[in-house]
Write a structure and sequence with these properties.
The complex is a heterodimer of chains A (78) and B (718). Chain A has a five-stranded antiparallel sheet. By secondary structure, chain A is α+β, with helices and mostly antiparallel strands. Chain A has one domain: Ferrous iron transport protein A (FeoA) (SH3 type barrels). Chain A has two helices and five strands. Chain B has 718 residues and is of the alpha/beta class. Chain B folds into three domains: 180 residues, Rossmann fold (3-Layer(aba) Sandwich), CATH 3.40.50.300; 99 residues, Helix Hairpins (Orthogonal Bundle); 392 residues, no CATH class. Chain B is built from 29 helices and eleven strands. In chain B, strands 2-3-1-4-5-7 form a six-stranded mixed sheet, sandwiched between helices. The two termini of chain B are 43 Å apart. The chains are: A alpha+beta (78), B alpha/beta (718).
């Protein structure tokens, strides 16, 4: 089975484009509220000292997401 | 800082009802709602317009209640209503519901949506959603000074053209642009150029709306935007439907004509391949893309690296190697400043107040007032008052401004960012780090702050464990004991430093207990999985140091004085009575402490200490005065200038290092004070959880004291 490239695989400094959201319910809507939709460019900025959450640059704002949520954001590789 | 003692309106349930109760002084008063994303400086705008002394902060959830304030402009009264900061109005959370309900049903004359100039695109989502609901919208682009620093240019003409509503740029911090803003508000109803943008969705959705809209318009008339309600009906927004039922009095989904059209509309969408789930996605995407387009036209960045300064700072503050050390050092630094900074003013205030005491005594004597009344009023009430003010006020007046500065700069979300993983392991929420920090200032404020946690389960965990961090009221107890018993042997310049270290150690212990108990709760009575979590790390902003310090000191001083009058004074009276009313030769106070003594000794304390904690229920700061009074058996509080005298007094009454340690541990972990208990009751609306919040720190504290005392005794260390 192919390994899916998700937001949680992004390394610090890397940028990629959102392909699909796999989260459901309120998390899905919350992600959409902050602008994470298909085609959005996201840059991985900073990992927390404990490794999680990770801060991303999304449409000009810095938002931190836990890995269990960011692994549900499917990205297309550049 | 969310202040203690917020009004009845600040409870969750009353919030919805309360937020729609606007008190107009005259019928011509205009109601203006202030909406916006979190962290855009909405509170600053609110304060600047209304002049109310509310604290502003760089953290979401700061304005979780709806505040109202008055603003007069060109002879018209405007009532500004500060609604909760939200990312959207789709009502995924209690705050969003409140915001949406007020905009829909609160009948504001206008809605000002405050945006951050350095982050316009993300803010635009809320702007567009608001315009969908109401025509009377003004977009207020705040933080223009920050945008200028980052070389971000905003074309207001383009924005105004695209959005079709007035757009005003301001810098609330420096007061610039506020006149233009109110001018725009004034002219809003006269404005003829207003032609608010109509969000165009993809054709299938537009067609579906068109099917339903006429029926909705007929039912609703002008009460709400029929186009928007139609969209929500098709999308089955249950929350909106129940709000319509609540505020307009009818269940719109039960209307036959409308129900039929909804069915038709949805069928049409299905034909075009759009089902329930995809519909929601399409609506959200459309808003995001429209926002993107508008901002692409209007906003230009001179440099792509405009946020590089923030990135660099974050790299230091949250990196693997420097993140935690910096946090701990910062903590130590703040406590150090609080302790040393408080010493000098404490002494001065104590001197003044105790001198005034003599004046009072003379005054009473000259009026030939009976001795026992003089004794009661001056030696009882006044003394406790004086002690509390001289000991409590300086640390609070220093700690709160420092903490506020930290908040304003934007550091607190970084703390949540650093600690989230550990909280997650305890099955709690990273935002608990923030409520914990608030608890350092005041536990009741920390409880109110728990509102920023969305999940009710995690909110309860944060509420119950909040008392494990010592508040400003407990600092003096801890500091006094530390200074008397542990630092007094060290030379003077190092005394403050050692005191700080030990205090930090105690607090770290409190934090560790918070984690442990959170974990324990989450596997026993508050079982569940960690909820989803997004945390915004807002840009760093230079705080207005002068303003913050002055306002915070003023704020806190009033608060402490108020509390001293309301709590400490009556407490002083009661203590005096208990200490001076004698039954069978010994005072009531002594009776009680003797009664409690055996149990207290088990905990490494003694009867006097335990009763002091019990009597300290109204306010933790009076615990030490009571202990002293009881030992003195003179029935009144002694002057506290000399700590070595105090130490002798304690040692003479049986204190050992173990007693000091156990007293500190018990001070850290015992029942919440009365204000905190009341706040918990208000916030949780449940006696059960209030009782649990009361019991858990108490039981834990007693257990630990017992263990420490027993261990020390078994090993013959005492």
């Amino acid at each position: 089975m192919n390994e899916i490239f998700s937001l949680s695989n992004l390394k610090e400094g890397e940028t990629a484009t959102v392909k699909k959201l796999r989260s459901t319910g309120s998390m899905r809507r919350r992600l959409q509220d902050i602008g994470l939709i298909e085609g959005t460019r996201v840059e991985c900025l900073q990992k927390s000292p404990s490794g999680d959450p990770i801060a991303f640059l999304i449409r000009g704002a810095v938002i931190a997401l836990r890995s269990e949520d960011s692994c549900n954001v499917v990205m297309s590789e550049n | 800082m969310i202040r203690v003692g917020l009004t009845a309106k600040s409870t969750g349930i009353k919030l919805i009802e309360g937020s729609l109760d606007i008190e107009k002084e005259t019928p011509n008063d205009k109601v203006i709602a202030l909406a916006g994303n979190p962290n855009v400086g909405k509170s600053t705008v609110f304060n600047a317009l209304t002049g109310m002394n509310q604290h502003t902060g760089n953290w979401p959830g700061k304005t979780v209640t709806s505040a109202q304030g008055k603003c007069t402009f060109n002879k018209t009264n405007y009532i500004m209503v500060d609604i909760p900061g939200t990312y959207s109005l789709m009502a995924h959370s209690a705050e969003e519901e409140v915001a949406r309900d007020f905009i829909c049903f609160g009948n504001p004359d206008a809605i000002i949506v405050v945006c951050d100039a350095t982050c316009l695109e993300r803010n635009m989502n809320l702007v567009l959603q608001t315009i969908e609901i109401s025509d009377h919208v003004i977009v207020c682009v705040n933080l223009m000074d920050e945008a200028k620093k980052k070389h971000i240019h905003i074309d207001f003409g383009s924005l105004q053209k695209d959005l079709g509503v007035p757009v005003v740029g301001i810098s609330a911090r420096s007061g610039k642009g506020l006149g233009e803003l109110m001018q725009a508000v004034e002219e809003l109803n006269n404005e003829t150029f207003i032609n608010p943008i109509k969000i165009k969705y993809i054709s299938p959705i537009e067609e579906a709306i068109a099917i339903l809209e006429p029926a909705v318009k007929e039912k609703l008339g002008d009460k709400l935007s029929s186009r928007w309600v139609s969209l929500k009906l098709i999308d089955s927004d249950d929350s909106l439907m129940s709000s319509i039922k609540k505020y307009l009095g009818f269940d719109i989904t039960k209307d036959e004509a409308i129900a039929k059209k909804i069915f038709e509309a949805r069928a049409h969408l299905k034909e075009c391949g759009i089902n329930e789930d995809t519909l929601n996605d399409k609506i959200a995407s459309c808003l995001v893309i429209t926002a993107e387009g508008i901002c692409a036209d209007a906003v230009s960045f001179e440099s792509e690296k405009y946020n590089s300064r923030d990135r660099k700072i974050d790299r230091i503050l949250t990196s693997k190697w420097s993140g935690y050390p910096i946090m701990i050092l910062l903590l130590i630094f703040i406590f150090y400043l609080t302790i040393t900074g408080a010493n000098y003013p404490s002494e001065i205030i104590a001197n003044v107040l105790f001198k005034f005491q003599d004046v009072l005594l003379e005054f009473f004597k000259s009026l030939h007032i009976p001795n026992w009344i003089t004794d009661m009023v001056v030696m009882g009430v006044y003394r406790v008052l004086a002690w509390v003010v001289s000991v409590m006020l300086p640390p609070m007046a220093i700690f709160f401004p420092l903490f506020t500065l930290l908040e304003d700069v934007g550091y607190l979300p970084r703390i949540a960012f650093n600690l989230d993983r550990h909280f997650k392991k305890a099955n709690a929420c990273g935002k608990q780090a923030l409520t914990m920090c608030m608890g350092f200032g005041c536990n009741a404020a920390g409880i109110v702050g728990c509102r920023i946690i969305d999940s009710p389960r995690e909110r309860l965990i944060a509420t119950i464990t909040n008392n494990f961090v010592p508040c400003n009221g407990r600092f003096p107890t801890l500091i006094a004991i530390i200074t008397m018993f542990f630092a007094s042997s060290v030379a003077l310049p190092f005394q403050s430093f050692i005191s700080t270290l030990i205090l930090t150690g105690v607090i770290v212990l409190g934090i560790i207990m918070t984690f442990l108990i959170s974990k324990l709760l989450s596997v026993t009575i508050l079982k569940g999985v960690p909820s989803s979590f997004t945390l915004e790390l807002p840009p760093y902003r230079k705080p207005q140091i002068g303003k913050v310090i002055v306002r915070s000191i003023f704020d806190r001083t009033l608060f402490v004085l108020g509390r001293a009058a309301v709590v400490a004074a009556p407490a002083g009276l009661i203590i005096w009575i208990m200490a001076n009313v004698k039954v069978g030769g010994i005072s009531l106070l002594l009776h009680c402490s003797q009664f409690l003594d055996p149990f207290a000794k088990l905990l490494g304390l003694d009867g006097v200490i335990l009763i002091a904690f019990i009597l300290g229920f109204p306010a933790n700061e009076i615990v030490v005065p009571i202990i002293i009074m009881a030992y003195m058996a003179t029935g009144s509080i002694v002057d506290l200038q000399d700590l070595t005298q105090l130490r002798t007094l304690l040692v003479n009454n049986g204190w050992t290092w173990l007693t000091a340690v156990c007293t500190m541990l018990f001070s850290l972990m015992h029942w919440p004070c009365s204000t905190t208990c009341l706040t918990i009751k208000k916030e949780t609306q449940s006696l059960k959880w209030t009782a649990i919040s009361f019991a858990i720190p108490t039981v834990v504290g007693m257990l630990i004291c017992f263990l420490v005392a027993s261990t020390a005794r078994i090993f013959g260390l005492v």
